[in-house]
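User: Here's a chain of 400 residues. Predict its fold as tokens.
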Amino acid sequence: MTKDVLIGSIGLAPQVVTETVWALMNPQHLIDPGHRKRDVFIPSEIHLVATAASRDRLERQDLAGRLATLMRQQGVPPARLSVTVPTGADGGPIADIRTEAETIAYANHVTRLVERFTARPETRVHVSVAGGRKSMTCYDHSALMLFGREQDSLSHVLVEPAALETCPDFWWPGQPEATVPDRDGRPLPTGVGAARVDLVPTPFIRLNRFVKRGSLSGPAVDYRSVVRAVQDALDLSGVTLRCGARTLRIGSMDIVLPHREFALYATLATAAVDGWPGAGPDGVGDGHYGWVTMDGFRDPDGAAVRTFARFYEQAFLTGSARAEALSARLADVRRDPTADRFEALERFVTEAKSKLGRLLKQKIDNPYLAHRIGVAQRRPAGGPRRFGLLLPAEDIGIEG
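Assistant: Prediction complete.
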């Protein structure tokens, strides 16, 4: 069952919460010519992020009581209201959003909140940017850009007539009070039709495929680090292999791989850069380049095995027992090319490929980047298994 969750910042005008909730529950009053019909959104949970000052204002104006009245009037179950205040470096609630430290504390708090609820497949999350300071709504918007899914949405609300916007006694169209006084004391009608709340949907760019779920689970990871990870993925120009250090350099990130796995990655990188013929991401045979087939690793004198053995040997110090063992294994295959020996060599490569894939996913905190940098495989029915790098040759550098 779908659960609707409303998230937003709140300042000194708690009325924007009830106005937003009313508009979400009454889309039939919001259909303008040329606009698509909107779905009814009935929040079962409302999570507001406030400062210490705005939280006190909510309590004095009894937002919780007003929300309960609204939802009872609409004939829907009451929503669970949660108001949280981010904590600053001193461990206390932030008083306002006026300093860099307070801004960072707010950004981290609201981003974690949005990440938590968008991680649940049964939820629809709606973020309102109608309340709070501009800096607060900026981070509300950014948090939804980072983690929002197809079913999630963003909006602002506008009240008509404009005189009602500054009226502290107006909460939603059709509220129990038939009129409310404007600033000059003149009565303004609040009935549906006389008063109007326009929900303005705000399209946003979804960047969730660039962000690893759960990346905000630790206190050391914050909004800035997530933005930096996304920017690294967007700015990616390629990968550089530093063979002497068994390192993949991706943007500003260095990934050190084990000897065998680095040797395999370097082999696939060489296949891409040198354009080895016979296999590619789109097929096998003439006109396909840059990938290798598993059959290529069954030939001890073929380019794939020789290149793999060379990088494997380079990964160790001269005279390494492991490198010598691989050389001995290849020599055995040449002397006695039996099926068992071929299968042992193929198993060695297959294990390296599987471990390489797991390591890259673990070490790269970005699913898009891990996919683009990683090893892809194709195994069509009846055709040879082939694999290689998705990166084009011009985005691969090999040093040493």
